[in-house]
Amino acid sequence: MTTSTLAPAIPASPNASRHASLQDLLQAMDAGADQVQRHLWLIALLEWIRGGDKSPEGPAARMEAFLNAVEAQPEVAARLHDWWRTLITSVDGTALLSDYGFASRNAFVTELVDRLHYKLLPVSPDTTDASELFSLVMPKPRDAQWLAALPASTLERLGRMLETPAVGHLTKAHPTLTHWQYTLLEAINFCTSHIRAAGFTPEIRQRMSATALEASPFHALASDFDGLRDAWLAQLNGSGTPEALNQASLLFRAKLDICSRAVSTVYDHLDAHGISVDLVFRLRQIRERVQRIRSLLDCLLIDQPYVHTAQLMSHLAGVRQDQRSLRALLSNSTSLLAAKVAERSSEVGEHYITRTRSEYRTMLVSAGGGGALTAVTTLLKFAVMAIGLTAFWNGFWSGVVYAASFVVIQLMHFTLATKQPAMTAPAMAAKLRDFSNATALKDFVDEVTHLVRSQAAAVLGNVVVVFPLVLLVSGAIQLVSGKPMIGPAQANYVFHSLSLLGPCLLFAAFTGVLLFASSIIAGWTENWFVLHRLDSALRYNPQITRRLGIERAGRWALFMRQNISGFAANISLGFMLGLTPAVLEFFGLGIEVRHVTLSTGQLAAACASMGWDVVRNPALWWAVASIPLIGALNLGVSFYLAFRVALQAHSITGRSRVRVRRALLERLRQEPMSFLRPARAAS
After folding, report:
1. Non-local CB neighbours of 597 within 8 Å, separated by 6+ positions
2. Other CB atoms closer than 10 Å to residue 415's CB: what's the count?
3. Helix, strand, coil % (nearest 5) of the chain?
């Protein structure tokens, strides 16, 4: 059959192939056709087998029909065998088995770009790459399901029908070797080489435990595979024994386990060395290649190889969906990073949780200091607004004022209430790490009560101090200058912007998101600082020590190591509070920020401007009513988001979360006052 007569027989589209008859497809099959036509025929055949069924029973029945039709016509069976031999010799099946689903480069960003490329650009069937052809043949999510559901008898018939002698350097010494077996051996060899190369990279070797590094499991991995291959080929020729093959298989599998454990030790040293997305990506690739080798070994060594082959193809079809998914890449590559960020935040968060009466009083005093500094921040904010800058520069200098104020609060060891939740949430989630411990749930509920009390104390300390202090300073300014710090128009704007009747609460929830984002930035920054060993560089770099001196360089290194997370959180939060409204306004989004302590200070300034008559203004009381709700949303939203990240980092399941909610409700019902004040026995 010529190409010209073949082309019209192949459906022009996948939808058309569903309506094509099986007989038409069998007649169109031609091993001598052009490469692209052979591949189009295969795509059309698999589309016919797939059909429109959502359940796997339909494809299984059509596969049976295909086999029956081929077996009933010896001439068709012969053409199918010739067609299959031409296909497997023209495409590289080894690449499909060893590399499909893995990144071509061990870097997160390059893989992200590649996935965007695959997602946006179509793939041509005119290819010798078996991976590209496989993605065209198995494009649907349900392909993995019906492949895994094919009966063993069907798979045996299909395997015997397509069995083809191998073409390669091993065929002379092993004439009974099939092409599929040869491809499996080559794929295992390629995967083994990739694992050895990854195990020798400096990024991984430097982070392995000393024991794992000394054992050097990656050195012998290749020789152990050679021993397994030789034992298998010897048994294939009849010169080997099952005992020797079994021993070689156990040795190679054991060496894979040792390599996996060696790579796992990297996770134990992430606190000391830090972690990057690329490193997480590399580690995941190694683990998955080890699992791929195990699957390939099952296809080669274990009984019912056709069943294991179908399971492998089903896995590859599922991998195809993940390979094109940007969400899967981001989720898999950042989950561990989120865990480490959460753990670093939890270390800081422990300092914000009060458990005794003395700690509670200390929190009140610390929050009062934060409120006093925030009063100054409020006055400086109004001073910036009085200059009359453009929206961007007003937001920028407001951000500078906020950031500087927050950093001073940090250095003076005062407390800003809204900074707590995003830091304390990971600390509490860490209590849920081991649910097998009977006291874990109780400890967590205790932590929640401690946190709520701490938050109440912090908000109370901030608000109680910032309001009268701003009133006092505003009154002093009016006495000295003869006019209020802000005019009546601006004061009315403050009342309107803080009114419970407006979008104030929506803005407060949005501010909670910014608070959470600042905690994530803090965790990432600290991880980056540790990853690049900047504290060690500050302490020991010859140029730095020559300028600062050894002792001063050591003090600076310790200071930055202890405060880098706080600096990142405070500076990022300050600029987000200042610049975000200006940036969003540029895009036509009138979203503002509402921070409980800053809003209270602004309300105090407006009251001072309006005088005593303000108490008769209903707008004042609508603004006052919104203050506690602003605080609740600031705290609640930031805590909720941070807690979700922490739960994901610690792999807390949905069932466990239900237990947590029930325990919290039970504590609230039995001891409601424990959420507001510490018990006397705790002092």
Report:
1. 370, 371, 374, 416, 417, 418, 459, 462, 463, 466
2. 27
3. 80, 0, 20
> Residue 234, class by beta-carbon neighbours within 10 Å (0-12 exposed, 13-18 middle, 19+ buried)?
middle
The CATH number of 338-678 is which of 3.20.20.20, 1.20.1080.10, 3.30.870.10, 3.30.365.10?
1.20.1080.10
CA distance 593 to 106: 41
**Side chain identity at residue 545, one-letter code:** T
CB 604 within 8 A of CB 467: yes
pLDDT digits (tens, 9 = 90+) for 127-139: 888 888 998 898 8
Tokens 């608000």: give the residue.
463
> Are 135 and 151 a contacting pair, CB within 8 Å?
no
The vertex-127 CA angle with 125 and 128, nearest 5°, equals 140
Q: Is the Cα torsion angle 485, 488, 489, 494 positive or negative in sign?
A: positive
Q: Is 273 exposed, middle or buried (0-12, 13-18, 19+ CB in 10 A)?
A: middle
Distance separating alpha carbons of residues 654 and 651, to the nearest angstrom: 10
Residue 645 CA to residue 513 CA, distance in Å, equals 13
CA neighbor of 452 nearest in space, from 624, 658, 599, 639: 639
Q: Quick one: which of 594, 589, 581 has its CA closest to 623? A: 594
Q: For residues 240 and 234, is the Cβ–Cβ distance under 8 A?
A: yes
Q: Is the pTM of this model over 0.70?
A: no
Half-sphere exposure of 100 (CA within 13 A, CB side): 26
Cα distance between residue 532 and residue 543, in whole Å: 17
Q: Which two tokens stand for residue 496?
A: 């309107």
List 178's β-bridge partners, or say none: 165
Query: CA-to-CA distance for 193 and 186, rounded, in angstroms?
Result: 11
pLDDT tens for 657-666 read 777 778 888 8
Show the tokens assigned to 235. Answer: 């048994």
Q: Which phi and psi angles does 178 have, rounded to 5°?
A: -85, 160
Give the three-class secondary structure for 129. strand
Measure the CA–CA gap between 97 and 100, rounded to whole angstroms. Answer: 6
d(CA 179, CA 5): 31
Helix (H, G, I), strand (E, B) or coil at 388: coil
- The residue-averaged pLDDT of 231-257 equals 91
Q: How does DSSP assign 185-202, residue by residue?
A: HHHHHHHHHHHHHHHTSH
Residue given tokens 């600076």 in the structure block: 556
Residue spans of alpha helices (H) in 650-674 = 654-670
Boundaries of CATH 1.20.1080.10 in the chain?
338-678
Integer Cα distance of 526 and 341 in angstroms: 8
| Residue 177 and residue 170 in contact, taking contact as beta carbons nearer than 8 Å | yes
Q: pLDDT digit string (tens) for 325-366? A: 666 655 555 555 555 555 555 555 555 677 778 888 888 899
**Is the distance from CB of 519 to CB of 345 less than 8 angstroms?**
yes
Q: Give 511-566 pLDDT, tens digit per residue.
A: 999 988 888 788 778 778 877 788 888 999 999 999 999 999 999 999 998 888 88
Which positions ≥6 away from 498 have C-beta within 8 Å?
Answer: 504, 594, 599, 602, 603, 622, 623, 626, 627, 630
Distance between CA atoms of 93 and 79, rounded to whole angstroms?
Answer: 21
